[in-house]
Amino acid sequence: MSIHPDIATLTDLTASANQAVSVTNQDAVFQVLQDSVLRLWDVVNQLSSVQPPKRDRYRVSIFGSARLLPDTPLYLGVQQLASELTLMGCDIVTGGGPGLMQAANEGSVMADPADRTKSIGIRVNLDFEQETNPFVEEVYFHRSFFSRLHHFVLLSDAFVVVPGGLGTTLEAMMVWQLLQVRQLHNTPFLLIGEMWADLVLWAKQYMLSTEVPLISPNDLLIPECMDTFEAAIARLQTAHAQWLAATETS
Fold this sequence. Notes:
The protein is 50% helix and 12% strand. By secondary structure, it is of the alpha/beta class. Strands 4-3-2-1-5-6-7 form a 7-stranded parallel sheet, with helices on both faces. Residues 1-17 have low confidence and may be disordered.
């Protein structure tokens, strides 16, 4: 009788559980814990391979600083960006916190009084983390950055990165690498602002223009650096139209 690999894994887990290990045997306890964690990761990896169903609306994730205050030029710019995308029929996805995340969620809600689209926040539980901003209509909570970042990838059809700190940089680099290794395909990755153009120049200097190149020249073509929100809107209008056309023919 053949056993499906998943069932075989469960059988192994059951067998291991039936073999008593004394808590005083630290090496054996450590081995059990290590084996259990690795098996759990196998389950997580299998679940992660399941793709979500095709969406009714195009979704754009906007990554940016939690520290920018309302009514500042950058806040208003992100707010307008999200409003324009919402008027196109897009859902807006952010980290759900204050600052430029709030600007994006606020812009989404302002442009959608009939509630035809969604303003989404993907949060992470931290002791010092701020509350979810009041413009999030649909919120998800994660205990780790790892699962949260993966959730962004599952939900999003495009990524826009506006000025931010270490958290924003982490999000940007994750998307960049996933596009590099082709875990993401044909997904717009837009970097708005001088700081991100400088990051790409830094990568060119220290990763490509070296005696032994650490990346491929094509890797530097993945992020689309832009100076203005208007340029990002125009790029996403094109991407959204292509997505709609593909959706209608599938």
